[in-house]
Design a protein that fits this description.
globular; seven-stranded mixed β-sheet; Nucleotidyltransferase, domain 5; single chain; 22 strands; alpha+beta
């Protein structure tokens, strides 16, 4: 059996074909377009749908794919009637007007109920739902179902409308993890009757003939991307682990962290795993910040460039994107002017130091698995292993942990084995002066009055 996984990211959307031994047999990539319409920034859904449908059809024709699974980024919802969207899908990177925000923010439940911090823009998608309901009540009145982003695509590509707990439980304001039920906001706004029945991530929710295949392709219920990465490693029985899932967002998940350690002012929250269990989490927009600091660098970063940056004390101080554990002034580069490769080294060191801080705040003392695109070449993981010598570090055998976890869910749902490669041990880097560089970074951040600049976790 082979499964196609559509991994819909905020910056990049990808299709992978997985065999049962965990190998990626084929892949395709595109970038979603976010366009202005009706006073909002919205997804160009038609273009993305056409790309996805063609990519899946090609995968079915070329590889005999029998199942289609979806992994999707957080913070995004869709309103549908029986056949179509009742409003275009909102871009989560937009802030409601101040006068509307003042009204809707009064309705948001307490952190103690939802474990969703009050975040800007649409980082809590319940907030964007309140905004849209206020300015376009007709879109809500016409909607028969409210779907999470991966559930939208599973439905759009041939499934039925369902809910899924890992997505609803992802800092949405819509879920109460302790009671494992919808939050008080859902009932106060009258949304419960438009939340479809739940299916587990990976469950088959429909069939569709694609790519000229004589047999229909099973459509599987989608999953939140970071929770898919967590599932990919948990299923391998590696013991207690913290997962650092990197992409546009860097999401650090430690199921062993006590809930009372979560600080909503540092972008700490509870995610919910595919079986409804709470997963303490901290995150920041690391991929976006890396791109900003590095000037869009895409090449390799030499070890010598990293050492030069450490020796010269060139560093990036938070923050270069909204949210995260060190909110405060706009990001700043200090030290001499770096060349292009040195800027990329500064950006990677910045991400490493932010992850290091996040691991302290999330009380991580277990094995850490570093996953995703920011660990290309293994440099990020090796920096973290040097910064935290008391912890064991592993890295994904591929950079696609979210897609791999999604594929595993699809195979498991139909009783098929899926033998993904186990993560590999990480060897710590050996840069001179890295610990002092970290200390200086914290001191500079504290001097700028950045919240959360220091943490007291064990290393």
């Amino acid at each position: 059996m082979k499964v196609a996984v559509l991994d819909f990211g905020k910056t990049n959307s990808k299709l992978f074909v997985f065999d049962q031994d965990g190998r990626i047999l084929d892949e395709r990539r595109t970038q979603p377009n976010w366009v202005p319409q009706g006073g909002f920034s919205v997804l160009d859904e038609a273009t993305l749908h056409d790309w996805a449908l063609n990519a899946v059809a090609d995968a079915v024709g070329s590889h005999g794919v029998e199942g289609l699974m979806v992994s999707g980024h957080g913070c995004t919802f869709a309103l549908i009637d029986e056949t179509a969207l009742t409003h275009p899908i909102l871009d989560y990177e937009q802030e409601p007007p101040a006068e509307i925000a003042a009204r809707i923010d009064r309705r948001i439940p307490d952190f103690a109920e939802t474990f969703s911090p009050r975040l800007p823009l649409g980082f809590n998608y319940g907030r964007h739902m309140l905004w849209l309901q206020e300015v376009d009540p007709g879109a809500f009145a016409a909607a028969k179902s409210i779907l999470g982003y991966p559930q939208y695509w599973s439905w759009r590509l041939g499934g039925r409308a369902v809910s899924e707990v890992s997505y609803l439980g992802c800092h949405s304001h819509l879920w109460a993890p302790r009671s494992q039920d919808f939050s008080s906001l859902v009932d106060a706004q009258g949304w419960r009757d438009r939340m479809p029945s739940f299916e587990r991530a990976g469950a088959v929710i429909g069939e569709r003939h694609l790519g000229g295949s004589a047999r229909p392709v099973g459509i599987h219920n989608g999953v939140h991307d970071s929770n898919a990465a967590l599932h990919a490693y948990r299923r391998q029985e590696l013991g207690p682990v913290t997962v650092v899932s990197t992409g546009t967002w860097v999401v650090v998940l430690n199921p062993d962290c006590p809930l009372d350690a979560l600080d909503q002012d540092r972008d700490m929250l509870v995610n919910v795993d595919v079986d409804g269990g709470p997963v303490p989490t901290i995150r920041f927009m690391g991929g976006r910040e890396f791109a900003t600091i590095s000037g869009g660098w895409h090449g390799e970063i030499g070890l010598s460039a990293i050492q030069r940056v450490i020796d010269a004390g060139i560093m990036a101080l938070p923050s270069f994107a909204p949210g995260g554990p060190m909110a405060g002034p706009s990001g700043l580069l200090v030290g001499r002017t770096p060349d292009a490769e040195e800027r990329a080294a500064v950006a990677l060191l910045y991400v490493a130091l932010m992850v290091d801080l996040s691991l302290d705040l999330i009380h991580s003392q277990n094995t850490v698995i570093v996953d995703g695109g920011l660990n290309a070449g293994g440099l990020l993981a090796s920096l973290l292993a040097q910064l935290r010598p008391s912890q064991a570090f592993l890295q994904g055998a591929t950079l696609e942990g979210s897609a791999t976890g999604a594929a595993a869910l699809a195979f498991e749902s139909v009783g098929r084995e899926f033998a993904a490669e186990v993560p590999e041990p990480v060897h710590a880097s050996r840069f001179t002066g890295l610990a002092s560089y970290r200390d200086d970074w914290h001191a500079f951040a504290m001097d700028r009055g950045i919240a959360g600049a220091a943490a007291g976790g064990a290393r």
